[in-house]
Write a structure and sequence with these properties.
alpha+beta; Tumour Suppressor Smad4; Arc Repressor Mutant, subunit A; 2 domains; 6-stranded mixed beta sheet; 6-stranded antiparallel beta sheet; 4 helices; 22 strands; 16% helix; elongated; Cell_Proc_Reg/RNA_Proc; DNA-binding; FHA domain containing protein; DNA binding
Amino acid sequence: MGAAGQSKLLQAFAADNLARLAGADGICQEQIFSHAVARTKAGLVDQWGRLHHIGERVAIGRRPSTQGIFILEGSISREHAEVYFDEDVGAWFVRDLDSKNGTLVNDEVVTAPSLLRSGDIVFFGQVGFLFLMPIDGEFDASFDSPLASETLRADQGIRAPTPAEDGQTARHPLGPAGEATEMSEDSDDDEITQVGLPHLAMRLIEPSGGGGGFLETSDKRVQLTATQFAFLQILTLRMKGERSQPEAVRGFIRSSELLAELPWDTPHPEENHLKQLVRRVRRSLTRAGLGNMVESRRGFGYRLRVTPSEVDAT
């Protein structure tokens, strides 16, 4: 396939918002760079639309031991992960190299080599990429993303194709018991009604000095920023305060209310700021083994996917 055809292929993944790849606060495109590859068999597209070429194996990290993709960002370990092609099975995989902040594929924590498909969203620490394969084996060596020449705002960019294209949906954990639910990877609004919400003994701890806090369960402790803490606190209070409401509608808070009430670090918070906050909270909870505890539903807003109760302080 020529560069023009490959350009059309990548443009098929373009979307009207970049929130699926937006992660680390304050990162700029100069903090991510990679070496040229003569025979490009796959690529990782960053949140600015730039294609980072992959041969048959590439290391990712702040200082990977071999030529690879360098990410100069605090959540990235020196040798964070590697993406490679396994000739025995004819497929691409990503392997986490015992990094401090982990690797995720479509919000699932990578604990063993994980299969990659074209369109998967991969997060190394807090930095997200779109994994992409050409349809005929290789990208042209000179090929680059057609989006990279555009001026992209932090609320524009790339996301994975709709799972309905191949009839598949992703399975995501629900909560502490590890229940799973079908959820579209491509939707910000899950539109899932959980009836018989699982109970979770939990408490939110805010240090006297402020600046954030912790979510604590019987066996886990998750550190939260000030805005993340306030978000979970509001959801928890609303869920507790609506005990008499039917479970199908209990505990939801509209986006407009969250935008008005949360302590944002911007004077004019918008819907995309809220969506990015929700994704970061979900990733933090997933990494801790608590699963996706935040449900979103179009027309209702956001709520906890669990019924909170007090954890034993001892």
